[in-house]
Amino acid sequence: MELLIFGSLTDIIGTNKQVIDNPVDTEMLKASLLQQYPSLGQVPYFVAINKTMVQGNHPLQEGDVVALMPAFSGG
User: Fold this and answer.
1) How far is it, in rounded angstroms, from Cα 10 to Cα 69?
2) Total-model pTM
3) How many distinct structural domains can be found in the chain?
């Protein structure tokens, strides 16, 4: 599965793209990332699967592209 990282989250993770083993769902993905990058728990971010923003826990399938995007505000 391809993981794309945007904005300030790249500073925490250290890259803008990773290929990761297929987690079962978004909660498993977040838990794994939090274990590897504890600072990720300090910033709000959104998750998108295949260019669609999701909330809550969603199943993931092989070949999905998941994006992590920092919370944004408009003005």
Assistant:
1) 10
2) 0.90
3) 1
